[in-house]
């Protein structure tokens, strides 16, 4: 046994020594440096500096290549180098810096007519703008597409059509919510037609997936399912693992939504089997498929199988986090190597004098390594003996670990039960909310931005039509999450009862106050529950453009057309329910509006969010200015802008409260 251990450590020692050889990449860099010293022609030096930048990722070489290209007025090389440097920053997700380089490259290429390079630059700029400003992204995609059309590059055209379709698919829609979806569909169909004619089966399958997704969003589920099955057949014929997995799982989801759980299971198992047999296992996709299978087995009452796939979903998430940490470590090593390379260049003149000292140091390191390795062998033998002595203790620890695992499994099951209950509560709460289509039908120029903090929300919006009058309200209940959701359901029901009996917003709020207090058995006793809600309620006479408003702690903001200020109609300073008196009066305000005037009702979640560079609250003043700045946009564009601004402001911070903003333009 001891002899076998000795052979093992000798092998490890030899392997470690072999690793001391210089990697091929470093040899290439040294060769290029030597070539640089002998190069006489500036154009050759530009190319050498550029290759050194590509190999070392050191911006020093990239700047040297740029400097020399400008000196010899080689505008084509200058533009290309700027583009490549920008691309490096893009793949490191430093998009602001990347955009600066792309814009510089674009200006040179536009001036000198480098169309082949411009097509790629426009495409990359479109990628950068797509998350934050889709309209600019479409503009640059269109410029790139025009050049590819000029060159009759249909393969690239198909990708541009697909990219533009992606942008329009992600937009909320104009005054007609389906407009952008139909535009996206037209681009996807153009891409699909080209790929049918020229593309690989994998590309055709991808286009069928995009097109089917839009049909699904337009309510044409049968057409979507038809295209998904067609795409799956093509993907299987081409043995395109990624598309087989994605489309099988997607078809399974469609059948799951139709509650045909057996067919859903067949397709999801096909996705799982294909992914399991793949050589390149994708933990993200495996996790999604496993979670989807767990939900399907749960609906089929096969809880044992459901538990197995939910466990696999957790394992995939853990593996994905571990791989992410490794990637971060590799990036750190790469950054350190690049910085070391830069420092090596700066001290080049002093390096010759230090060579002898480096060699001596390496000898000391080698001897130290050998001595340390011998000590390591002795330590391993000692540890092995201790290990054998503690085997009995380890067996006892194994029993303890099994008990802990059982407890963990039990906790996980209880957690899943609670989560499932909350998701079911979400379904109930959604059923009480008005349909957005009904709101858009009555108020065509309007939006509802609704972002719960948790799965369910204490904020809710309410809508009704009665006697040619439109009622709309924004409410903020005590708390958020499950308690807030209970309050929202009670509030919605009591508000329906009040509007059934009254038309005047003041009297409606009085009846709502009485209804809440009765439902929660509240009195003026200090021991009574204080749960309640704040509300802004408007009744709208669309024919005469008259708005009647009453509020409990929530105001009404009005922005008249072509003005630069907000007119605030203050609410009555008391809440609905809680310690509010049963006979409390809520003041009604009547406002005459004109075409183009806009009003907003909202809860306090948006302005109370922490974020920004200093981590402070957004505040009401900032919220006012944002609304004034976006008055030139449509209501759907305002909704998208407000949501994007909030997410950028919040950053990595937790959302503090439920968010609800309702905007209506006359």
Keywords:
666 residues, alpha+beta, six-stranded antiparallel beta sheet, 67% helix, globular
Would you give an account of this structure?
With 666 residues, this protein is α+β, with helices and mostly antiparallel strands. Helices cover 67% and strands 11% of the residues. The chain contains 23 helices and 13 strands. The strands form three sheets. Strands 2, 3, 4, 5, 8 and 9 form a six-stranded antiparallel beta sheet that branches. Strands 1-13-10-6-7 form a five-stranded antiparallel beta sheet, with helices on both faces. The chain has a two-stranded antiparallel ribbon with strand order 11-12. A hairpin with a 4-residue loop joins strand 11 (610-611) and strand 12 (616-617). Mean pLDDT is 81; it is low at 1-22 and 324-352.
Tell me briefly what this model is.
The chain has 666 residues and is α+β, with helices and mostly antiparallel strands. The protein is built from 23 helices and 13 strands. β11 (610-611) and β12 (616-617) form a beta hairpin.
